[in-house]
Amino acid sequence: MSIKANFAKSGAWMVVSAIFNNVSSMIIFIALARLLTPTQFGIVAFATIFIEFSRVLVVAGIPDALIQRKDWDDDVASSAFWTNIGISVGICLIIGIVAAPLSYFGYDETFALVLIALSFALVIEALTTVHTAKLRREFRYKAIASRNMAANVLSGVIGVILAATGWGVWALVLSRLLGALITSAILWRTSGWQPRFFFRWGHVRALSAISSHLLGNQLIGQANSQVAGLIIGSVIGPAALAQFRVGTRILTLMSQLLITPLQAAAMSAFSRLEEAGKSIAPAYVRVTKSCSLLACPMFLGASAVAPDLVQVMFGPQWHDAGLIMAISGLVVGPSVIMYFFTPALASAGRSGLSFRHFFVALFVNLGVAVAAIPFGLIAIASGKTIESHLTLPYGLSLLRKGIGLRIVTILGAVGPAYVASLVMGAVLVALSLFVLQPLPAFYRLAVMVPLGGLLYFVLLAIFVRSYLLSNLEELRSILKPRLTVPANELGSK
Q1: Residue 360 in contact with residue 220, Cβ under 8 Å?
Q2: What is the pLDDT of residue 464?
Q3: For the whole prediction, is pTM greater than 0.70?
Q4: Which of 249, 359, 391, 410 is the most exposed, having the fewest neighbouring CB atoms within 10 Å of its CB?
């Protein structure tokens, strides 16, 4: 089968997997949020922050390095396998001998035990990093998607059952460990590869030359995304962290379902333009303009109805999560402008500018979060929204330097959708506070959600009709990607 056909088939499986996993995870998340207390939820969420940092170190970019090699070599793969195992065991020992005892006496006894238990997932996942790389090399995304979906559903259902029968925080822990075990078992059966008792430092050094820059970017990205949660969990406590996680969960789901497919299509388009010697900037403007048509109303609309939506979905014990969701949704303006920042600069061969931006954003994010500590949970949770607005001018200057994008042009492309969404959101908030307040939350949502969507498109149709029509056509073409490179240029496998 040609690479062209393999690519299309693999992409379809990953889209199906992403939709299925996100929707099923959300259903399980809602069930667990109703069964567990914020403190129980928060303890696992706080431990997960440290596990996610550790996972980046365990993987160390090695699977991507294996994929980029021209040929598959079992000796190199075996060296990579034992490297991942060695790193994972080493991190588990550090957690068990150093981090957990410090946490036990200085923070929370249950947290320390949860941290130790979750660290075993690092070793379980290290068993399959090379297997996953082999499947990806061979375009066997059906196997990857199938194991993700199976593990997600089985572990989630068992987690809900354990939570309902009184296992508390350990329902979440056992669910995660079980998911890792199921994933590993399926991969070992389907990959067709078994590690040898072979190791050579030369192979590891060669892989590290490729993976080191990936590791640096992943660590910076992970740190930037976890700053607020780390400060909330360590300063205010796990219950507050749980409110933060629940408050951002719906927005994360919307991003994964709505924006990620557009980003993947944009990366392909930008790369082809660069290969053809054409400017990336006009394409950046078009894809950002189309993305804003959907992202702005969805995020600002979610902000407007957040308190009611969180109460209906998760229950009244998550009141603060509704306020956090309302604040977090306001990030959409800078986010929609910058979402295709990394693909554009990478396609133009200017990845260093992308790293520079994320490095600056990390320190701004950290500074804002630390300054907000005296003002409590809501102030700290606002840090990401504040940071995105503060660093937007710097990011735009890097885009101008990297791909020649004019700042006025991109602001004009996003402006109509953003302004119409702000007006729509303001109307919904006013209706909720002054007209619909006597109604139960569910009925307020039933009125506001369709009304908000209708109002948004009416505003665009009346005031910027040509903007709306051109955007809809552009969005249709993006969401229906076509591989236009001839098969003879791609070659066959």
Answers
A1: no
A2: 86
A3: yes
A4: 359
